[in-house]
TrEMBL record:
GO annotation terms (biological process): carbohydrate derivative metabolic process
Top-level taxon in the UniProt lineage: Bacteria
Family annotation (SUPFAM superfamilies): Homeodomain-like (SSF46689), SIS domain (SSF53697)
Species for this entry: Mesorhizobium waimense
Keyword annotations from UniProtKB, A to Z: DNA-binding, Transcription, Transcription regulation
Residue ranges of every copy of the SIS domain listed in the record: 144-281
Pfam families with a match to the protein in the record: HTH_6, SIS
Organism lineage string: Bacteria, Pseudomonadati, Pseudomonadota, Alphaproteobacteria, Hyphomicrobiales
Keyword Transcription found: yes
Protein name per UniProt: MurR/RpiR family transcriptional regulator
PANTHER family on file: GLUCOKINASE (PTHR30514), TRANSCRIPTIONAL REGULATOR (PTHR30514:SF20)
Amino acid sequence: MGLGGATMDERVPRDFETLRATILERRQSLPKRIAQIAAYALDNPDDIAFGTAASIAASAGVQPSTLIRFAQQLGFDGFTSLQQVFRERLRERNSSYDERLAALRAKAEEGAGHRAIFDGFVAAASTSLSDISRTLNEPHFEEAIALLAKAETIYVLAKRRSYPVASYIAYALGKLKIRNQLIESAAGLNAEMVAFATPSDAVIAISFSPYAPATIEETRAISEQGVPIVAITDSSFSPLAQFAKVWFEVAEADFGGFRSLSATMALAMALTVAVGEKRRDTGRKRKA
């Protein structure tokens, strides 16, 4: 019998969402190597579903025995039992876009020409958009809008692959006449720009694996100043998540190893426009 009269079997996560929530709840207390495989599992659920213990361990950079310890830490009798949860997740998903993307990859590899590459990226973008539409946490979305709408200045922070999204947010906020600051400086004055932020402001920080070190360090610095952060990232184990008051997990599909930014851009556009609407509504109520 387990704690409170429950058997071990009764406390084992039986679906992916419960498993994910359990991992998140325990992540701070997990031993280093088990936390490493836990992060890999949440980032690469399809690999966990289909891989062998040896291949998964090699990809995650741990020993195969760590997979067994990871499974047992969550209450499973072994890794195979844990793997069934990941396989069930795939069975429950609408796989039409995934199947189409796989077919397009095969077509491109067979020499179907440049149109197949275009179709591949369109299918990847469609997959990303479908996934975020299905998984968006609406209470978090509303909380992020409220947080950003009351900010005096919205700072926008991203580097490398995420930079186009940050650039769009800054552009759109400017068009909406919302004071903002894109944290970038050819003169290397990012730290000075970050130092101006106060708790009455807010930050939108964006980064995906492999996370840009500068983004992480600047986010850390700005969080230490008490500035609330809205993060857009790709994993609950992302360094950004620990600094954020509200964060969004965006899983972008890829084609040929090139990841789409479609879902991220859709979320960024929705946040920006919704913040503008929220501020206008607040202004009208004050005048009434």
